[in-house]
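Q: Predict the assembly, please.
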Amino acid sequence: MPELPEVETTRRGITPHIQDRRITGVVVRQARLRWPVPRQLGQKTTGQKIRSVLRRGKYLLLQLDAGTVILHLGMSGSLRLVPWDTPADKHDHVDIQLDNKRSLRLHDPRRFGAVLWTSREISQHKLFKHLGPEPLTDDFTGAYLHALSRKRKCNVKSLIMNAGIVVGVGNIYACEALFLAGIRPGLAADKLSRPRCEKLVAGIKAVLQQAIAAGGTTLRDFTDGDGKPGYFKQQLQVYDREGQDCHRCGQTIKRVTSANRSTYYCPHCQK
DNA sequence: ACGAAGCCCTGCAAGC
DNA sequence: TGCTTGCAGGGCTTCG
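A: Predicted assembly structure:
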């Protein structure tokens, strides 16, 4: 399930292969993704050069001259570069064909992903207008999080998974960051002290950076291989470890359901 | 304005 | 063994 580190790893992997290439066509085999793939996607993009490949939260942005292709991998999506005539497998929904006889191919079994087009400034787009800061920038600080958490009745895990507060923190890394910070996921957001906010922000940055570093060393070439990472799993401290020993204190990791999401924590290390 | 629940979808695991 | 059921997940959307 692609979270921010996987999306960033994908961005870095595909960029050298697609930047400054011209789009020669688009093939849509399945338009019913998270939102319908726009019918005009092909005519809007064909003939244009990909100027840059950006990321905002978990969205990938292909910057063209006349607008932006917005990509999201949902939870089962992946991108690969293939020779343009490679037969499509099941769930290979969209190809963006390039002038180097290759296609950027979206594979997404669960179809929670998205391919959209906008000719407007990306920050004006509905999906991006209300997003919080990027977690790995200096805009995301303990002071900022502390200020926004005042008078909030939600728990701290929901707080950091709220894209209006900070983007790109999904279920797995929310659990991991809370473990690093020693904070219980169910704690009310407005009970978080300023120093604990500092610690939490540091935890979020650390876990994301770690995962990006791990992805960077594992996924070397996006033009071959099956594109299945799964590289970070061995480093997880609490996620998906219900009933197992805490790596830090040896006590048993617990799982609770919060906001319909599995939440893992160590009752001894997290208060 | 906020927070909680619902929904989209398929693959896989567990249970019968 | 073959079916059915439940669960997982991001995150927008709807409802309260």
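The CA atoms of residues 181 and 196 of chain A lie 7 Å apart. The mean pLDDT of chain A is 89.
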